[in-house]
Amino acid sequence: KPKVMVIDSIQTIFTEQLQSAPGGVSQVRESAALLVRYAKQSGTAIFLVGHVT
């Protein structure tokens, strides 16, 4: 398992658990929550990059 993970950009990650479009607020929130849960369980440091235009 990785020690460090970089997600650039969080807006490109999505979960099929939600019907909203990738990059939307709901998708970003849920994807980030899943990644935080993974980080805590695995001990992996995760850097999330978000782009705002």
* SSE run: EHE
Total strands: the figure is 2
- Terminal CA distance reads 33 Å
The biggest beta sheet is recorded as: 2 strands, parallel
Q: What portion of residues is helical?
A: 25-40%
Neighbour order of strands in the largest sheet:
1-2
Number of structural domains: 1
For the residues shown, what is the average pLDDT? Answer: 94
Q: What is the number of helical segments per DSSP (H or I, 4+ residues)?
A: 1
* Secondary structural class: alpha+beta
In terms of DSSP E residues, the strand content is 15-25%
Radius of gyration: 11 Å
pLDDT < 50 runs, ≥5 residues: none
User: What would the principal axes of the Cα set say about the shape?
Assistant: globular
Blueprint (SSEs and pairs):
Layout: E1 4-8, H1 25-42, E2 45-49
Parallel strand pairs: 1-2
Short characterization:
This protein has 53 residues and is of the alpha+beta class.
Give an overview of the whole structure:
With 53 residues, this protein is α+β, with helices and mostly antiparallel strands. 34% of the residues lie in helices and 19% in strands. It is built from 1 helix and 2 strands; from the N terminus they run βαβ. Strands 1-2 form a two-stranded parallel ribbon. The protein starts with a strand and ends with a strand. The model has no long low-confidence stretch (mean pLDDT 94).
